Each structure stands twice: as C-alpha cells, then as structure tokens.
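User: Assemble these into one structure.

Assistant: Restating your components, then the assembled model:
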Amino acid sequence: MTEMATLTPVLTDNWDVARAWTLASYEQGGGYGALEKALGMAPDTVIAAVKDSGLRGRGGAGFPTGLKWGFIPQDNPKPKYLVVNADESEPGTCKDTPLMMASPHTLVEGVIISSYAIRANTAFIYVRGEILHVVRRLHRAVQEAYLAGHLGKNIHGSGYDLDLIVHAGAGAYICGEETALLDSLEGRRGQPRLRPPFPAVAGLYASPTVINNVESIASVPSIIEHGAEWFSSMGTERSKGYGIFSLSGHVTRPGQYEAPLGITLRTLIDLAGGMREGHELKFWTPGGSSTPMLTAEHLDVPLDFEAIGAAGSMLGTRALQLFDETTCIVRAVLRWTEFYKHESCGKCTPCREGTWWLVQTLTKIEKGIGTPADIKEDLDQLLDQCDNILGRSFCALADGATSPISSSIEYFRDEYLAHAEHGGCPFDPAASTVFAPVGAHT
Amino acid sequence: MIERAYDDATWAELEEIAARYPQKRSGLLPMLHLVQSVEGRVTPEGIEACAEILDISAAEVSGVATFYTMYKRKPVGDYHVGVCTNTLCAVLGGDLIFERLKEHLDVGNDETTVPEGDGKSVTLEHIECNAACDYAPMMTVNWEFMDNMTPESATRLVDDLREGKEVRSTRGPRVVTWREAERVIAGFSDGLADEGPAAGPASLVGLEIARANDWIAPDARGDKQ
C-alpha cells in the first residue's frame, strides 16, 4: 500500500475537460452512473452509505450529512424537500461557484441521489443571484437532465419522480443561513427562524426538509460509485474524505486545491509556490471571515474539524485567506465588521445594534483617535461588546461578527495600540496590493 | 411606463414564474428580477403586479424588495459595475480600484453616469465578497466575473462599456445589458450557457499540480495510489 496522494482531485477532476459543463462531457466521464446504481438500492441503503462514509457538511458547520438525512421523519405525510444551499457568500469562500460553473451535472446528479434517499419529489438549488454565468449553467444542466430522463417522471424507469427547481436569490449574505434561506425561498425577507422546530421536521412550507451545501451534495455520487470505505480512506480520524481548499490573498498561486481533510496550510502554501515574493504570512482565516483568524504559528495544524477547533478556530468552508505583513490588522477587521453590520438582517437586537457599535469603536481606533490608554479602554469595550453579542442571536452571523475582532485582539493587540501612537494607520495600503512593486514594504 | 409593466406578455411571464413552485409566493424573488428587467428598477407598478398575482399585500412585496441588495429603487444604467471591497479584495487593490473609478466616472457609490451622445450609462457600486477570491481584486459587470483587475484595466473596462464596445467576461460570455441579465436571473434563458471556459486559470491550479505529479484519489477498489 503506497502513500496517499497529497492532492486528490475528485470534484475538480473534470474541470479541465473540454465543455465539462455539458451533459455529453459529463456522461462521457461516467456521469450519472452513480444515479443508476443508487436507483437500484433501497433509499435507506443510500442513507446508510453516506452515514458510513463519514461525510460531514461542507458548508461550514461540519454536521454529519447522513445523520441529517436520517432525521427526516418518513412517517410524516407531508412532502419532503431537498434544498441545496448554493448561496456561497462567506468572505473568502469560492469553491461552490467554480464547481457549479465547470461541472453543474455533478451537483445535479448528487441532488437526484440525495432526494431519492430522503424520498423527496421536489428539490431546489438556491443559488446566489450575483453569479450570473453559474445561474445560466445550472439552468442549462437541469434542462439537459430532464431531456435525458435523469429528472422528471419515472427516472431511469425506476418509478421515482423528481422535479428540480433552480432558484436565484437577490443579494443577502444572511440567506446562506439555512432557515433564512428557507424564508427567502418562500418569498419572504431572509430572516432566520427560531429552532426548534428544526428544518428536518418543519422546514420549507413547514414540511420535512434537508438543506445541504453544494459540495456536500456533489460528493454523494462519488460515495455511491466508489463506496463509503473508499471515501473514508481519505482524511483523518473524524474528518473523512476530500474537500476543496480555496487559497486566496498574498500567495503566489491562489486557487482551488482538492485534498484529503487534514492537509496543512504549510503544504498548501508550498504547492501554491509560497507567499508572494519577499513577504511572509501574517494572519489567515481557515474557513472564511467568521472563523477566528490564525497566524504563522498554526501552519502545521491539520486542516480538519478537530485540530482547527483545538487551535481555537473552525474549519468552516476551507476558505484560506492569506495576508502578509503589509496588511493592517485593524483595516482588515474593520472592513469585515462593516460587512457584518451591512448584512445583519435586523431581527435580533444584539446583532443589529451590536455590529453597529463594533464599527463605531473600530473606526475610532483605526483613525488613531485618543491616547494609547484610550485605545486600551476601547479594546476592553470591544471585547465587552463581543461578549454581549456572542451566543445571543438566532443565528451564527452575530457570532461570526465577533470572531475577527476577538481573535485579532488576541494575536495583534500591539498593532491596535500602534494606531494611537501613530495618530492613525501606520501601514501603506498601496504595499498590500497585487500591483505593488515586488518587495515593497510598509 | 405602466403599459410595459402590465403588458400581456410580461404578466404571463410573472404568472409563469409563480407557477414553477409548489406555493406561488416562492416566485416573488425571481418575479422582482423580471420586473427589473422590464422596467430597469423595482417600480410601484411592479410591486402591485407581484402583489396581485401572489395574492399578498403590496406592503409585503415592498418589504421583500427593500431587503435584498440586488433590487434597485433608482434606475440602473445600461451596465451595473461592481467592485468588491470586502477585506481580501480591498487589501489586494479593490479599494484603490473603487477610488479610481469614482474619480474617473465622477460618480459616488450607487450612482449612475450620464451618457454622452449614443454612449451607454454605467452604475457604480461597491459590492461584498462575490465568491471569486482567488481572482482578487475582482469586479463584476452585470454580475459577470471580471477577474484580476487593476486600476488601469478597470478604467479601460468602464470606458469600453460607455462607448458601447463589446466586453467579454474573463470567465463567461460577452456582457449583456443589466436588464437582459436580470431576465436570466429570473429564470429565462438567453442561450449563452455554452460560452466561456469551464474554469478560469485559478480554478485549475491544484488540478494541474495533481496532474503533473500523477496524484489521483484512491481508485474504486480501495487501493491507494
């Protein structure tokens, strides 16, 4: 038995094939073979395979996918629904979008198998509206799948029926939160719901609903095709399988790297040709801006749910945003905080008012208003505000808003204070740009 | 233009959207996109039309229309130009690009240029993370990707748009107008799905390294390669 390959293309494997997005190209590569196999299995056997594979949700939370499917009460007489969360909006996250653009049929095949497993006859792909070409490719793929008999009535002669509706959103980060997404899909303002009841019991139209991320659903055909054991042969003890790691920022070759869970950032940066020439890593997010930032001391932490959790953060969506020493931490954190303030849906007071206060305090610090002693008080106030926001709202947006602040104060407190000493930001923003001369420093 | 909002063809299309769903109110978001494609913004007439078809109040429709950032109450130009200024793109150059464009076009955020002669109008807006961080700094034109931008390429882009020259997305088709794009988002095909590549260069870097090293996932028999 030889060693596991460093990168393991499965979902990305056909992205370099000519016209990969078409049905003809997808079927040429064996596409919809897993569907044929699944339709010959009992639905509960499909659920068991996904459970046994150890697949955990790829949208950030990491909840076991098969377990979620098992929560659907099959004795409930209401229709069951599958909803794919394709509202990819977490800052730094850019994996589902290229997947749907290059190979929308991987997702469509996953939707059909997953819907069959949970016994849904209607499924939805809720895609964010701001990625027009992805919307086009999804619509076309669904149309092709209907024409080929992969969707509609009596799929592959199995007696199973499924309709799949592509639904474009209208610009709201909060709709990536699953219950806000459901309200939005019902034609309402996208605001989170109080749980319980959970969507598995009362989701879309108050009916049993499974909501899964694009990458989770797109992983299902490979599990059915190759088996649960194959999938779980990759990854770590409790974080099984492969995943797409998205590198962005001050790295030589940003892009998508598909690898077993547990790869380290050090390995990924090496593959990506290192940090940009003449610079070094200062801070990074493991899974989007809502996951507490880490530093160069965490380069060897395995990128899986457990190890990143133990390091004080979360694996999230494997959105690895890398920043070098030219980047001002206060500027970065303020911008993220402005984002959370803008995207707060306004339902819960701690989030609606709290994110507003966070922006006020951070803006004052960024401008260097006050003495170092004043800024120390501001930092205490910021942490106090975070304490009053964290865990006090319906959904995780508010919690996410506190992550960049509390983690950056932990690692870069002195840099906040330097803004008072300097009477403003001590960094040159031009040095951080990709069009700055090589080797430019602050 | 009440007549356009209420002509039979548009009315039928609004009803057609509502009919796609198990419960018709689910059609509201795409219906509002269609209203924008017909009228260039969400109008009171469009709100009334959605309310009547869905059998809900105009206030309920209005509440939805004001919640989402893609819906515009002011007329949008021929082209909507977005500049990502969320942290990563901002740091990598998005802030400079946005400043340069405001100056070059002499407009503020969410404002529209006044076209000269036969020229086209452009609405400039800074946008949040648009899921293309590996192509930072990124922009959008009518929600098509414009990757790896610089202040120079950004000013050239808006000049080309204003002059009516053909502009192509770096990972998609030739850019259509904002109204045409809104119609696609509402679920009506423009036949352009087959244009552009499967993936841009950054989407393929990992795959290329895997190919060069002969790295593959374990095969179906469970043997490790």
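The longest helix of chain B spans residues 87-105.
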